[in-house]
Amino acid sequence: MWEHIWYPTRKVILVTGGTGLVGQAIKRVSEEDSRPDEEFIFLSSKDADLKDAAATEAVFEKYKPTHVIHLAAMVGGLFHNMKHNLDFLRNNILINDNILHNSYKYGVKKAISCLSTCIFPDKTTYPIDETMVHNGPPHNSNFGYSYAKRLIDVQNHAYNQQYGCHFTSVIPTNVFGEHDNYNLEDSHVIPGLIHKAYLAKKEGKPLVVYGSGKPLRQFIYSVDLAKLFLWVLREYNEIDPIILSVDEANEVSIGEVAQMVADAFQLEHGIVFDSTKADGQFKKTASNKKLRQYLPDFQFTPFKEAIQQSVNWFVDNYENARK
Ligand code: NAP
Ligand code: GFB
Q1: b/e map of 225-243 (b: 16 or more CB within 10 Å)?
Q2: Confidence class of residue 9 from pLDDT cuts 50, 70 and 90?
Q3: DSSP designation for 87
Q4: Which of 76, 159, 191, 302 has a beta carbon 3.0–4.6 Å from 186's, enabling a disulfide?
């Protein structure tokens, strides 16, 4: 409908990692809230292995993006990180350097990278805020991923200082929603619980929750995160990162989340905890004060409702879901 109209400020927005949990949510929200001067391109690893410098340059040469939302990464839950800290470090450093350097070479006006609240120091005061990114070692379970992500903030400031580039980053808490990775070894906790609850329902067994169920987390629904990403693309003009999180009052325990997933599946055989499995970081309570200063009235989807929608999506898409 818009293609015949020329917009001087037309944005060509390259979304790396466009086929993942967050990428698919941005696709959905950018279609629901489309703007005439915005054209989105959603990349998958099939378009290019972004660890490869030449393949990454070829993508920039092909699409000549004016803006970049950089999501592509080696991503996984606690147990995947604990087994592959080196791969998380090396793969993410390679991907990030290729994206940011080509964003500079192709004159990208704004690049937004995605960090994570797990990168903050493990020994810290709470709530965590954006000024604490580099204040001491991260939790040992995910140091590879964490240092690679921290380096993005360093790279953003270096490109700004040396070339005046406008590269920034967002720091979401744990994300969940449709199109997640449900692999029982590699996944995050919510898709892992959803997959296990699906099997428990089928087999008439209890839902097995790894660890004690006591650790605390803030979870953001992928669709809410996607709406905030579009706001950052259109309105946020700092180089410094911004935490994208629900309020501290919405922090929940793993045990409470597991009960919500069990209820969403109407499981009849309850929940059991496997304390032989690690708990990981006890908590990473994040302040969204900076976000609330910009968007005091932003409405997050009620957690229970978002869990139910995520469960329904998995049940409806079980055959094709990433497992
Ligand atoms: P995801 O579902 O695992 O998706 C990862 C995406 O990256 C996929 O599109 C994948 O492409 C692409 N990708 C991976 N390796 C690649 C490579 N070598 N070359 C090109 N593309 C590659 O991840 P997500 O959960 O959406 O995460 C998106 C971003 O949010 C990441 O930067 C992650 O660190 C960050 N984050 C996630 C969470 C969370 O809880 N999930 C929390 C905080 C921050 P294919 O589909 O082709 O494999
Ligand atoms: O999402 P998750 O794997 O990672 O959550 P983190 C781990 C917590 O959930 C631990 C418990 O306390 C686990 O004991 N848990 C219970 C489970 N059942 C399960 C299950 O079936 N699967 C999983 N995975 N956990 C990650 C970082 O930390 O946070 C990543 O390692 C990334 O790098 C991600 O940043 C957002 O929240 O502990």
Answers
A1: bbbbbbbbbeebeeeebbb
A2: confident
A3: H
A4: 76
Q: Is 118 in the pocket of ligand 1 (CB under 6 A)?
A: no
Strands 167-172 and 174-176: unpaired
CA 244 to mean position of chain CA atoms: 10
- Domain architecture of the chain: domains with CATH: 2-176+219-245 (3.40.50.720)
95 alpha carbon, closest ligand: 1
Return the ligand 2 atom nearest residue 76 CA. Answer: 30
pLDDT value of position 7:
59
Distance of CA 205 to the CA centre of its chain: 31
Distance from residue 109's CA to the centre of ligand 2 (Å): 35
Give which of 8, 23, 170 is closest to 31, Cα–Cα: 23
The single-letter DSSP state of residue 20 is S
Which ligand has the nearest atom to the CA of 258? 2
Measured from the Cα of 215, ligand 2's closest atom is 12
Q: Strands 216-217, 252-253: parallel, antiparallel or unpaired by DSSP?
A: antiparallel
Mark whether 145 is an active-site residue. Answer: yes
- Between the CA of 36 and the centroid of ligand 2 the distance, in Å, is 39
Cα distance between residue 231 and residue 219, in whole Å: 19
SS3 138: coil
Closest to 233 (Cα-Cα) out of 64, 1, 66, 57 = 66
pLDDT tier at 5, thresholds 50, 70, 90: low
- In this prediction, residue 79 carries a pLDDT of 98
Report how far ligand 2's centroid is from the alpha carbon of 231 (Å): 28
Q: Give the 3-state DSSP-derived string for 145-205, with helices as H, strands as E and coil as C.
A: HHHHHHHHHHHHHHHHHHHCCCEEEEEECEEECCCCECCCCCCCHHHHHHHHHHHHHHHCC
Give pLDDT tens digits for 227-243. Answer: 999 999 999 999 999 99
Cis peptide before 127 (omega within 30 of 0): yes
